[in-house]
Amino acid sequence: MKKLLALLLALVMVAGLVACGGGEATPTTTEAPVENPTDSPAQEDPTDAPVAADKGTIAVIAKGETHAFWQAVKAGAVDAGAAAGYEVTFRGPTAESEEYVPEQREMVQAALNNDDVKGIVLATIGLGFADELTAAFDKGLPVVEFDSGLYDNNADVTAEKDPTIGSVATDNFAAAGVVAENFYAYLKNNSLAVDGYKIGIIQHDSTSTGIDRAGGFKAKIEELAAADGITLDINVQVKANNEGEYKLGLSALKDWGAQSIFMTNEGVVNEVFPEISTNADAYKDILFAGFDAGTNQYTWMKDAGATYALLVGSVAQDSYNIGYKAVEMAINKLEGKEVSDVGIAGVWYTAENIDEQKDRNIFYMG
Questions:
Q1: How far is residue 326's CA from residue 146's CA, in Å, rounded to a whole number?
Q2: Domain map of the chain by residue range?
């Protein structure tokens, strides 16, 4: 009985100390109230919770917004930001034309005036960004060049005021080499890789992109053929991006006797496809390979040679990863990590895997 009374007395004394604030208090953390407590999920282990986008903003200024290519770029950019705790904004001019450079410059200036912006990812559509780049340098904002633009025209970069930290873009030479590797494998598997085999190339313009794509394909397929002791006959048709030019290139190659034709971008495909579909018999025996993506390429490839000439395969720019890697580079720089240029070779696709690549945002429609 005495032991029980002693225990009760001890408990009363402890309770009195707590009530009077005795001892050293343990610090507490006050959380912000939940706006809709009835809709809020159950509390999770903080280590499992997603990273909040509270580290600042990465402003992405692209060459456009509406085209499916840029929508896939945006998806990758947003995902990269979310993975590291940054918000990503994505803007682009009305059209991918130099006349909209002032509009794009305004977008860059808006990003520079936003104190929450910690880095800029930029694909320019022309010259005229020297002042904005200098301002970015003065503010200590890293600028990532992506897709194409600044690194094609260094006139925009002021000496000792260069904020650019690297570039992320399709390696056009390597991507065209991917086409050549897969296309040559098709020729070999079908006993078509022989001396004098005629391959035409429709090069979409004389810019570095067109030169690299035509050159990358030609260099790789000649290398592969030479390893087999074969000499190919290759005809390159360089055409300007004007309506009807690519169709003229197609006609010239057909008259030359081309047995296969490589098309270096979506624009070429979009002119060639209506011609070969309208005149199916005239082109039925020519094999084709492409570059980029789009609705016409999807329709043509899914036909699989049933109605018109066979589109053996094509390489799509990995637009999702271009966006992801560009934003990731800016974040890595901000967080003190080493950065270097990223060249993305692209993804080969055929009728068999085109839907899979579409689901992965590699192939786009539009």
A1: 6
A2: 57-170+319-345, 173-316
For residue 61, the cross-strand partners are: 91, 122
Q: How far is residue 272's CA from residue 299's CA, in Å, rounded to a whole number?
A: 13
Neighbours of 38 (CB within 10 A): 5
pLDDT digits (tens, 9 = 90+) for 63-113: 999 888 899 899 999 999 999 999 999 999 999 888 999 999 999 999 999
Structure tokens at 315: 């390489």
Please give the pLDDT value at position 206: 87
CATH number, domain 57-170+319-345: 3.40.50.2300
**Cβ proximity of 197 and 229 under 8 Å:** no
Residues constituting the chain = 366
Question: pLDDT tens-digit profile of 308-337?
Answer: 999 999 999 888 999 999 999 999 999 999
Other C-beta atoms closer than 10 Å to the C-beta of 338 total 6
Q: Which three-class secondary structure string do you get for the chain?
A: CHHHHHHHHHHHHHHHHHHCCCCCCCCCCCCCCCCCCCCCCCCCCHHHCCCCCCCCEEEEECCCCCCHHHHHHHHHHHHHHHHHCCEEEEECCCCCCHHHHHHHHHHHHHHHCCCCEEEEEECCCCCCCHHHHHHHHHHCCCEEEECCCHHHCHHHCCCCCCCEEEEEEECHHHHHHHHHHHHHHHHHHCCCCCCCCEEEEEECCCCHHHHHHHHHHHHHHHHHHHHCCCCCEEEEEECCCCCCHHHHHHHHHHHHCCCEEEECCHHHHHHHHHHHHHCHHHHCCCEEEEECCCHHHHHHHHHCCCCCCCEEEEEECCHHHHHHHHHHHHHHHHCCCCCCCEEECCEEECCCCHHHHHHCCCCCCC
CA 246 – CA 270 distance, rounded (Å): 9
Phi, psi (degrees; rounded to nearest 5) at 349: -140, 155
CATH class of 173-316: alpha beta
